[in-house]
Amino acid sequence: MLARNARFPRWTVVLSAGMESSRREALNWLCERYWYPVYPFLRRHGHSPSATQDLTQSFLANFLKRRSIERSDPVRG
To answer: For the segment 53-75, what is each residue's pLDDT rounded down to a tens digit?
Structure first.
C-alpha cells in the first residue's frame, strides 16, 4: 500500500510504477500528486483554465504513454 499522506513521492513509489505488479496503483498515486504542480506551471504561461486542464492531462497522458517512468533512475534524480 502506498502512503497517501506524502506530498511528493519517494523513489520507492516511482520505482513501483515501473514494475508490472504495482504499476496501476503507483501511477495513479503519482498522477494525483503531480497534477497540481503541473497545472499552475502551465497556467503561469498564460493559458486559460480550461486549456491548462487539457494541457496538464495531455502532459501526464503522454508521460504514461511513453512509459518514461520505467527509465527512472534514483542516481540521476
So the answer is: 999 999 888 877 887 677 776 67
d(CA 29, CA 49): 23
Query: Taking a C-beta distance cutoff of 8 angstroms, is the pair 52, 36 a contact?
Result: no
- What one-character-per-residue DSSP string does the chain give? ---SS-SS--HHHHHHHTSGGGHHHHHHHHHHHHHHHHHHHHHTTT--HHHHHHHHHHHHHHHHHTTGGGG--TTT-
Higher pLDDT, 63 or 16: 63
Task: Report residue 66 CA to chain centroid gap.
Answer: 12
Residues above pLDDT 90, as percent of the chain: 29
Q: Are 9 and 30 in contact (CB under 8 A)?
A: yes
